[in-house]
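Contributing: when you submit paired examples, paste them exactly as shown. First protein:
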Amino acid sequence: MSAPRPLLRFEHGWAHDAGVWAPLRAALADWPQQAADAGYFGPAVEPPPDGAPVVAIGHSLGFLKILQSPAPGCIAYIAINGFARFAGGADYPPGVAPRLLERMLARLELDPAAVVDDFRRRAGSAPHPGTPRPEPLRHDLRRLREADERQTLAASRLPLLALAGTADPIVAPALTRAQFGACAGLRWRDGGGHLLPTSDPDWCAGRIRAFLAGLPA
């Protein structure tokens, strides 16, 4: 009797919701799946573990969150437009300038919808039809400013696939290379932006299927 297929568990990024995964999930519909939702526009959703082995798939901030709190039974990681550290510093020049995140935090207190819509526009998304919930957005914007899981990533022995776009306006190629440059599983989408799960779902699905096929039985 063959072993059951692992569960694909999806974690979205900042200013988005679980719907960002819809095209990619459809392209991988023959695999068992579940998706978390951070609650930026409605109730948060944290699907409970079901005992199956898990392949954790994170988009953007979602990958950082996976590194911070791995799902029980996690056997592999997939980062899409992802990172282990976002904010820059003297020891991390490729990162995003912290002052930009500070500015977003300050504006978030005054006009959450404007901050969210501006970020989504830069990322390549349309404005979200829902009403932003400031508290979870603030919490995870601070996470973007402060979190550094590069050591966690470096110490991990789990198989890793990293998908990135050469034209990503949020996670620049230099930032990607700083974290995944030595990774044999790094794959580039020429001309790809920050929303590969929605803009290039078939390309992503093809690389994911090849990666899954190579996992130990």
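Second protein:
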Amino acid sequence: MLKPIVPFEPVFFEEIPMGDEWIAQVKWDGVRMLTYFDGQVVQLFNRRQRERTHIFPELTEISSFTSAKSLILDGEVIALGEDGKPSFHEVMKRDGIRRLERVKDVMQLVPVYYMLFDILYYNGEFVTNLPLKERLELLSEIIEPNDKIQLVPAQNEGQTLFEVVKQHNLEGIVCKNLTSRYIINGKNSDWRKIKNYQDVIAVIGGVTYRAGVVNSMLLGLYDDQNQFWYIGHVGTGKLTKNEWREFTKVIEPLKIEHKPFINSPERVKNAQWLRPLLTVKVQYIEWTGGRSLRQPSIQAFVDHSPQKCKL
């Protein structure tokens, strides 16, 4: 079997690079996923090297979209919301499954799509040292898209693509240098993400209630000294009433008497403090001058290490 790796990551930029050496692709709001096929076994692993093969079995039918003898592919697994746009909340209904017996039923409710944008390994050899231009050409040659597997188009005009992304309120774009190599466990400015809106994975340090059900979360992030700072509260977003009720039950064993934050939240009255163990992805407009999130909106609960949720 092929050993899982940590994928190459883009760096955040505000300006879209110009020049013939740059292409731009839509940044899909989903779950980063790598496919490993050693010629016999197909496996899926996320960016944290956690296996997801049995969570997304419909994406493992390798012969349905390639005749390669072996490969490693990089891409994003997405699910669509009712508006037809990629929804992180929806894809987490699949990625968050912990009981495998539920997979078959949830597959019918939440279909997913695999958006492929790179190839690392092909027919027994790593191709990470090839320039991106050649890797994309190879990917196009060996992948036959179907109803579940798609190739992410590359555009020459990053600004034009970004305007389309803004019109449809998508997450953003990733600009990539056509000469770039794929650096395993790397991160540099050869890949640049430009976001239409911001998001952060934050830690839940407290809650408030209405009629016995949690109606808002008090969020925090850690600094480099491992101090836990309050960054704002959020009560809106994509959680359903049932998910709020279930969350109310989940936090029962996490209740504590003293606030876990080093600073004082504005919503101290009637707050119930929690051990900072649960994490949630939050979308927001910007940071305010007081180090808090402006207009935060809950996207989904995520399985993430609290200590890695940094300011």
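If you have annotations for the second protein, write them as plain sentences, like these:
The chain has two domains: 25-156, 198-308.
The chain has a mean pLDDT of 95.
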